[in-house]
Specification:
The chain has helices spanning 2-71, 80-90, 179-182, and strands at 137-147, 155-160, 167-171, 186-190. A hairpin with a 6-residue loop joins strand 2 and strand 3. Helix content is 42%, strand content 13%. By secondary structure, it is an alpha+beta fold. Strands 3-2-1-4 form a four-stranded antiparallel beta sheet, with no helix packed on it.
């Protein structure tokens, strides 16, 4: 039992010695770090002081230049009217050139074109009476009506007029009469007009 106690005491002493040693080492490290930090701060302070001195010297130089510029007297301003008057008085007046006599040439008479005789337009009173008997008007019946294949505003009608074959007629009645009302409707046609191909309609 006593042997164990002695062993524990020895261990405690060893641990205490180690702790003391570690504390000493830590103190030395702290001192070294403080010294290094102090050196760095001292160096930085020296640099800052040097920069401040340079800035002061530059500021004094600029201030001296400003005072020198302010001490220079300003030149008297010359108004543009005075400068123009001086220039006018210094330049000699040029003599006006003498107008030379120029011989005037007689002007040629302008050529006039003879006016063309305008033929009188025939008035409406000179026209003869209209002969209604020349119009071949007939009554027919639409037997078939359809829309034009190439024009949306036109109808194509086949009209029975009592002839051998019904006539094909093209009319622009799409906007006015529905296609249903065109079927089997009685109409009056003018039959002695010249036949023609309405929009190339094939009949």
């Amino acid at each position: 039992m006593s042997h164990n106690i002695l062993k524990l005491e020895n261990n405690v002493n060893t641990i205490y010695n180690l702790i003391s040693y570690i504390q000493k080492e830590l103190n030395q490290v702290v001192q070294l770090s403080n010294q290094n930090t102090l050196k760095v701060l001292t160096h930085e302070n020296a640099l800052l002081e040097k920069q401040v001195e340079q800035a002061k010297a530059r500021l004094m130089q600029l201030q001296g230049n400003t005072e020198l510029i302010a001490s220079i007297p300003k030149s008297k301003e010359v108004k543009p009217e005075e400068s123009q008057a001086k220039e006018a008085s210094s330049t000699p007046q040029s003599e006006s050139p003498v107008d030379k006599d120029t011989s005037t040439k007689p002007e040629k008479p302008a050529k006039t074109k003879p006016a063309k005789a305008v033929a009188p337009k025939p008035s409406d009173k000179d026209e003869g009476p209209v002969d209604i008997g020349r119009l071949d008007l007939r009554v027919g019946k639409i037997i078939e009506a359809s829309k034009h294949p190439d024009a949306d505003s036109l109808y194509v009608e086949k009209v029975e007029l009592g002839e051998a074959a019904p006539r094909t007629v093209v009319s622009g009645l799409v906007k006015f009469v529905p296609i249903e009302q065109m079927q089997n409707r009685m109409v009056v046609l003018l039959c002695n007009l010249k036949p023609g191909n309405a929009l190339m309609l094939r009949v």
